[in-house]
Amino acid sequence: xxxxxxxxxxxxxxxxxxxxxxxxxxxxxxxxxxxxxxxxxxxxxxxxxxxxxxxxxxxxxxxxxxxxxxxxxxxxxxxxxxxxxxxxxxxxxxxxxxxxxxxxxxxxxxxxxxxxxxxxxxxxxxxxxxxxxxxxxxxxxxxxxxxxxxxxxxxxxxxxxxxxxxxxxxxxxxxxxxxxxxxxxxxxxxxxxxxxxxxxxxxxxxxxxxxxxxxxxxxxxxxxxxxxxxxxxxxxxxxxxxxxxxxxxxxxxxxxxxxxxxxxxxxxx
Length: 269
Prior knowledge:
Elements: E1 7-11, H1 23-34, E2 40-50, E3 53-56, H2 72-75, H3 85-94, E4 100-103, H4 110-119, E5 127-133, H5 138-148, E6 156-162, H6 181-195, H7 199-203, H8 212-215, H9 223-230, E7 238-242, E8 245-246, E9 250-251, E10 254-257
Parallel strand pairs: 1-6, 2-5, 2-6, 3-4
Antiparallel strand pairs: 1-10, 7-10, 8-9
Helix pairs in contact: 5-9
């Protein structure tokens, strides 16, 4: 490839997406089939939210089942992708002067592997995961994404995994769960700002829409989007290949930076 590798944010939803056939998991598979094969993958997942910045640096990251109360089949899932210690060291250099810990303990949490199982089911591509620093302001997360954008020139997929609307306290069970007006409103506000490249409004997400406090009660599921937006180049195309809500209050909106052949249709509920 001569163009920068695409960057991608996925609304990952429930861990059950890993083993259930849904319109979202199917869309992830179709998207993976259209993505060029990357050299490696850098995942920024909502589920590694700690004080400080770390990057997995082991050669064989473990599959982390960071949830409870789900069917046994979900705990049997493994994503045995190799790690990439050299890429981890490169990320540490790119993010300087931010201190980055080369982590040997974490692995791949479900925000990473539940999506990768569908995007790249062979699990044969090197994967590293970057933590979200809970002490960093949203503009700081965006800035880290800007610095990491250089990896796109080396055919590294920057993959953010979270949900721009994520309120577990108010979710509803069932395929026909009602979608509250506030959840739709915030999802639509994010989508509109993404498509017009209004990064300033997306960084200042608590003021993006009146529904922000309900839609983003905690920041960790929203922040991975800012890394992907930070990696966008001036004038570069941006699209929403997947949209919709799951369980009433979880946005499955996905954002693609860069072009893919034959993937111009938004899949929306």
